[in-house]
Write a structure and sequence with these properties.
Blueprint: H1 2-12, H2 16-25, H3 30-83, H4 87-160, H5 175-221
């Protein structure tokens, strides 16, 4: 169980920005998908371990309570035998009480320890579930932005006839800015392409106007 908690701890502390950065550099979300699969697999293992340890904790607690009940009953009997002057029975009951009490205390300690492990597993499970939710949300969001950037770059390729922008190597903590920068660059390039087309159209329209004006002058001059 220690190795399981260590694996889970590693997954919980994983830097999603770093994983997404690797995915972007590889132009593939495979590394993120692998992380999600590992989280899901370990969640299954956590659930199984939690059920097992939780069941053992309940069993130990039940045995403790049973033995504690026996110890209390023996304690009463010891006093009763002493009041009745039955020293031999009191001594036997005291011996039995000592044995049962030690066993009850042992089960009590084991029950607390096992319940502590059970709580650790439940806590790890909650944290890992939260991490899984975050990873899936980040993957969906980042994949959507990456697809949008690719779409804008494709539009630029069609207009310009050259390769699209590439993703530069960004710092781990700047991965979101890198994606937004890529989107902004592709958007800006699209605006440039649009303005270039507008300028070309304006030039054609202006030339047409000039030609028409010159034609009118020629007509007046009889040329």
């Amino acid at each position: 169980m220690t190795s399981l908690l260590e694996r889970v701890g590693t997954l919980i502390s994983a830097n999603l920005n770093y994983l997404v950065s690797k995915a972007l550099k590889a132009n593939s979300m495979a590394v993120v998908d692998e992380y999600i699969r590992n989280v899901e697999d370990n969640l299954d293992a956590l659930e199984d371990a939690a059920a097992t340890v939780g069941g053992e904790a309940k069993t130990l607690k039940r045995k403790y309570e049973e033995l504690e009940g026996q110890a209390k009953e023996l304690d009463k009997n010891i006093d009763l035998f002493l009041k009745q002057g039955k020293e031999d029975l009191a001594q036997a009951a005291q011996y039995r009480y000592n044995t049962v009490k030690r066993l009850a205390d042992t089960y009590g300690e084991q029950s607390k320890a096992q319940d502590g492990e059970y709580q650790k597993l439940l806590d790890a499970k909650l944290k890992l579930e939260a991490k899984l939710t975050e990873a899936k949300r980040e993957r969906t969001e980042l994949q959507a932005m990456l697809d949008l950037a690719k779409s804008k770059e494709l539009t630029h390729k069609v207009v310009e006839g050259v390769g699209g922008a590439t993703v530069s190597e960004a710092g781990i903590s700047e991965i979101r800015d890198e994606i937004l920068r890529r989107l902004d660059k592709a958007t800006a390039q699209g605006e440039i392409d649009s303005k270039r087309l507008d300028n070309q159209m304006n030039e054609v329209l202006e030339k047409d106007t000039l030609d028409r004006q010159l034609a009118e002058r020629k007509a007046k001059l009889g040329i």
